[in-house]
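re the bet — no i am not wrong, look at it urself. input seq straight from the record:
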Amino acid sequence: MIETNPSETVCTPKPASFTIRRGDRCEQWSFETLFDYGHRLLLKGKYEVGASVFAQLATSQDRGPGAHVLLAWCHAMRDDYSGSSATLHRALPREKYGDVASRLHDLFVLWRVGLFLDVKNELTQLASAHPELPSLCLLLGDLLKACGADKLSRCFYRRAIELDHPDGAISRSADSILKQSGHRANN
């Protein structure tokens, strides 16, 4: 916690690092680097490995629900709907987020069975109503990109960047997707 004056404080998450084994080497990765790696796995359809990455990230208590949301999405893409629902309900308590956990779970099931237009419409509403959850814009960007709506997907990746902390994991991941496609966050 950084004190700015006696009546106002700004909370910043503690730096988190994770030991990752790559072959015979161990490396230290930041939360943000590991999140970006896990997100890239999801984009490649590697849900089992992605789930293990996001399960590890979800152990960090001071990073918000973003890793949990992507973990729940991994569960749903692997037909583990009860795991998806449980993860969302733990990360998005009704007292704070209303029915977001249930609505997201329903969306993930629809996504899994290929009803992308329904997912797009409902996820757009949820993202609009809950700017405190930039992971929704990240997922919407992913959905639109997968459906070939590249220009619209870039809008949601930029929105995820705007909503997240400047150096946050979601912001970093969305920015790396934009850069990979030859765009910057402000283009």
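see?? The beta strands are 2-5, 8-10, 17-22, 25-30. told u. also Residues 2-180 form a domain with the Serine Threonine Protein Phosphatase 5, Tetratricopeptide repeat fold (CATH 1.25.40). so pay up
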